[in-house]
Design goal:
Elements: H1 2-15, E1 23-24, H2 28-36, E2 42-44, H3 46-54, H4 64-77, E3 82-85, H5 93-106, E4 110-114, H6 132-145, E5 152-157, H7 159-162, H8 165-178, E6 182-185, H9 191-200, E7 205-207, H10 217-222, E8 225-228, H11 233-250, H12 263-283
Length: about 290
Amino acid sequence: MAFRTRRENLRLILSGSACVHPGSVYDAISIRIAEDLGFPLGMFGGSVAALAVLGDPDITLITLTELCEQMRRMSRGASLPVLVDADHGYGNALNVRRTVQELEAAGAAGLTIEDTLLPAAFGEAKAQLISLEEGVGKMKAALDGRSDPSLVIMGRTGAASITSIDDAIGRAKAYEATGVDALFFTGIKSRAELEAIASATRLPIVLGGAPDELNTLDYLASQRVRIALQGHAPIAAATRAVYDTLKALREGTAPKELKGLPSADLTARVMREAEVKARSADLLGLKK
């Protein structure tokens, strides 16, 4: 039931009239911070998943099991609904079905399945798309794999930057017809492209990054955009902070001389929350 509430909260965002920015999250600490700061939604991107779990770039090395394990840790750490970038579903349509089942069990509020050809084909420098027919088959498999009807499934296409905006619209309309809950677009470059998409489709729209001229929430909301990503700055900032701290320590700076570290406050807060949970368990008779 707890996971269903998170999914219903995501659906409220999609059915609303406003556009929101999600917080980029990638582990139990980042999702707790995003929730504390009041973000209505978390976004667990494929690139940050690869960095957080493997320390590798976003070249489809992470496995479904690793992705779901990280999602499960975040689900345990906070109740913030999370939209997961499930890439291509880790294989063919049967793999997509399994991907949905596993992410649903891990507590995801929603997920995206894209039509990019992954892993990249040998000898091809530019990203490629799978056929429209295979893309439709993957969307149908994703819907078939869902057991909780409140889980949000989004059809995602990168056609706008790979082939053409007309292809992106054609694919979006085909995915819409399968019964997905929203449409996720990457590579949208202008208001004209967004307005063409909004005119040709009817589902809520999610944008995976956009130029500055599209970064006005009121305008995006008027075009049925309900979620607009802002990249994944938190993991970049965290990585820089780790680097700078380790570098300072390696060069001889004493730990007590490091400035701005919140470790003591953070530790105290975690301990307080652990005590509250322990007392609750006592009251419920769950501890001997």
